[in-house]
Amino acid sequence: EITVLDDWLAHWFHVRAHPVFIKAMMFITHWHNTAGMMLMTAALGTWLYLRKARYWALALLFTVPGGMLLNVALKHTFQRARPSFDNPLLTLATYSFPSGHTVAATLFYGFVAAYLIHLTPRWKTRLVIAAGACLMVGLVGFSRMYLGVHYLSDVLAAVVEGSGWLAICISGVSTLRRRREGRRLG
Hints:
This protein is an all-alpha fold. Helices cover 79% and strands 0% of the residues.
């Protein structure tokens, strides 16, 4: 059962926490908090808008902030308690499932990867882009588990949630773009 694995893994990380690694994980996790993700999203959105990639900018607007709001709604729906330790590395009062940091990373880096892959014809380069996005999402998810504020299932659910929402947003805005362009031509 996943909850047994969740509990075992949370305690395994907790007893093996090392001060140097804790610092690195804190940096990753704090960089990907709500403020950090909104700052990166605003910078990317501005850049897309200035490059006249307005449909991509619109998709980004729906993808990251919209997905983060969806995540809050899911947290309040499930109301899962966070891992609990006698001496926690990090303490949060919000719910655990699904991981908000991981969903935000999935949305942001997944979006960046989709945009870059769209621009790149070479499959090897596309593979490197996708691997880089997966690495970043994995690092964020790992940092959340290592710091003891999420279970493995919280992180995995966030990746699934984020991937689904990303696909909906990009597909939706792409459909809007095709319809508008079709009207102009027709």
